[in-house]
Automatic annotation (TrEMBL):
Keywords: TPR repeat. It comes from Gangjinia marincola. It holds the Pfam family TPR_7. Gene3D superfamilies: Tetratricopeptide repeat domain. TPR repeats lie at residues 209-242. InterPro entries: TPR-like_helical_dom_sf (IPR011990), TPR_rpt (IPR019734). This is Tetratricopeptide repeat protein. It comes from the Bacteria.
């Protein structure tokens, strides 16, 4: 299991005690009430500019590509799925029409597909770019990313070897991801800290924000919540409307400090339309005994993502929601099977096995888990599913091997899951 999940007897004892406070509202209050809109206004203006350069039958490839990038930025800022789909349309048209630098447009289109969780489309698009043979390093980098999402771990390692350069930011961040996959979180953080030096030297805001939020995530996975919190604050200092940083600080107040009301206050300041925020808000409502509100928020999530524009982006969320909250296991299996087909990883197979177990088919759940999940991932949620299935199958000793790691993963999994884990081992 990951280094971060290894714990001592003392830390296990502390899980049942009051947690030490990490956050201080005075650190981030100004970001919650900020009325600054300069950065978002600039994105809208750029989007309008490039859109004005394009007509329905435009063959202006540069304008199409620029519009695609602008729509992507707009999606990142607002969560508006229509912006992401418009970006796809513009980038696809640019890639189709390009005779020169076609590979560059294919790479941009592949990145769009990755954002939409259309990993197989992204993979094929990248293979097309690879055939052209121009931007070999950039293509190999994205092929590494997609291969990891598709569970093609051996291919991912080959692509990583192709771009090896310990003095390169893009290589270091992927080496960090690879180390995380292997369960070596100490190495992951070390590589990310080295990458941070290059990001800070570049003074590029987008690069800094990406680096700080990822470092915040890795430190929180390692239980170093004070350092994680610091990086999320650094992110907000650069972008006071950054959705991800606010969401992660809210998670600290909820999962570590057991203060769902403060988490609600933080989330209320987020203007992004990302549907997953509805589920976070539902969990907070549930923890405050507002079950009717929680139910309504979950229904709103389903209504929101049940649109063609979202495609399969939220299949895993839907599978879990139908299984855990709605107890509709057939619908849950439908989404879980779609997710496995789209990205056959240990994590997606873990969810599929979990749903079969909840449905009562523990034999099939065990078969899937042992074939596709056991020893293939370090994620705590997958470990929880395995432990559940082993206990139901009568293999208590096997389930016991996950106990300490799961108890130590309470922050990452959240209060509700932490309670389930404790019940599992009563």
């Amino acid at each position: 299991m990951k280094t971060l999940y290894i714990t001592t007897v003392l830390s296990l004892m502390l899980l049942s005690c009051d947690q030490q406070s990490i956050t201080d509202a005075s650190d981030y209050n100004s970001y919650l009430i900020s009325t600054k809109t300069d950065q978002l206004d600039a994105v809208y203006k750029k989007n309008d500019f490039w859109n004005s350069r394009i007509t329905t039958d435009s063959t202006q490839i540069v304008a199409l590509a620029a519009a695609g990038n602008s729509y992507t930025n707009l999606f990142n800022r607002t969560g508006d799925i229509n912006a992401l789909k418009k970006a796809e349309k513009a980038l696809k048209k640019a890639a189709d029409k390009a005779a020169i630098s076609k590979d560059s447009y294919l790479l941009a289109l592949a990145q769009n597909y990755i954002t939409q969780h259309q990993f197989k489309k992204a993979h094929q698009t990248l293979l097309n770019a690879q055939e052209i043979g121009g931007k070999r390093k950039a293509t190999a980098m994205l092929l590494f990313d997609v291969s990891m999402e598709l569970g093609l771990v051996e291919k991912a390692e080959q692509y990583l070897d192709q771009i090896e350069n310990y003095g390169d930011f893009d290589y270091l961040i992927r080496l960090a991801k690879w180390s995380d996959h292997q369960g070596n979180l100490a190495a992951t953080i070390s590589y990310m800290e080295r990458a941070k030096l290059y990001a800070e030297a570049s003074k590029k805001q987008d690069l800094l924000i990406w680096t700080y939020t990822n470092l915040g995530d890795y430190y929180s996975h390692d239980g170093q919540l004070d350092r994680a919190y610091d990086y999320f604050l650094r992110t907000l200092a650069l972008d006071d409307q950054n959705t991800y940083a606010k969401k992660r600080i809210a998670w600290i107040t909820y999962s570590h400090e057991h203060n769902p009301s403060e988490a609600q206050r933080i989330l209320a300041s987020i203007k992004n339309q990302s549907p997953d925020l509805l589920l976070f808000r539902a969990d907070l409502a549930e923890s405050l005994s507002a079950s009717a509100e929680a139910k309504q928020l979950r229904k709103e999530f389903v209504t929101t993502v049940d649109k063609p524009e979202y495609g399969s982006m939220y299949d895993a969320y839907l599978a879990n929601l139908y299984a855990e909250n709605f107890k509709d296991y057939d619908t849950a299996l439908h989404y879980a099977e779609k997710d496995v087909a789209a990205r056959p990883t240990a994590e997606t197979y873990g969810l599929l096995a979990h749903i079969y177990h909840l449905k009562g088919d523990t034999k099939k759940a065990l078969k899937i888990a042992e074939a596709h999940v056991k020893d293939k991932t370090e994620e705590p949620l997958a470990a929880y599913y395995l432990a559940q299935i082993y206990i139901a199958s009568g293999n208590v000793d096997q389930a016991q091997s996950y106990k300490d790691d799961l108890l130590a993963s309470s922050f990452e999994l959240g209060p509700a899951m932490a309670r389930n884990i404790k019940k599992l081992y009563l």
